[in-house]
TrEMBL record:
The keyword Transmembrane applies. The chain crosses the membrane at residues 7-34, 40-68. The lineage of its organism: Bacteria, Pseudomonadati, Pseudomonadota, Alphaproteobacteria, Rhodobacterales. It comes from Pseudodonghicola xiamenensis. Keywords: Membrane, Transmembrane, Transmembrane helix. This is NfeD-like C-terminal, partner-binding.
Amino acid sequence: MLLWTLWWVWMAAALGLAILEVLVPGFVFLGFALGALGVGLLLLLVDVLALAPLLLIFALLSLTAWLVMRRLFSLPKGQVKIIDRDINDD
């Protein structure tokens, strides 16, 4: 059995990417983690897919997750976050 057809491999990849997101914040790896989670859940339902459709689904789910997070967590349009206090000034 090929590795990319196993649901737990995609779940492990999702967990690894989520942990990497904690280390490197900015919603960069979280979209990829959600995409891998979606593919893992899909493989639980559907028996086996070829690599190309799995990668396409992964890419589309990751892009969708990233766009949704960008819309939900970004500042309102036209606002700029200004930091005037340094945490090391105490």
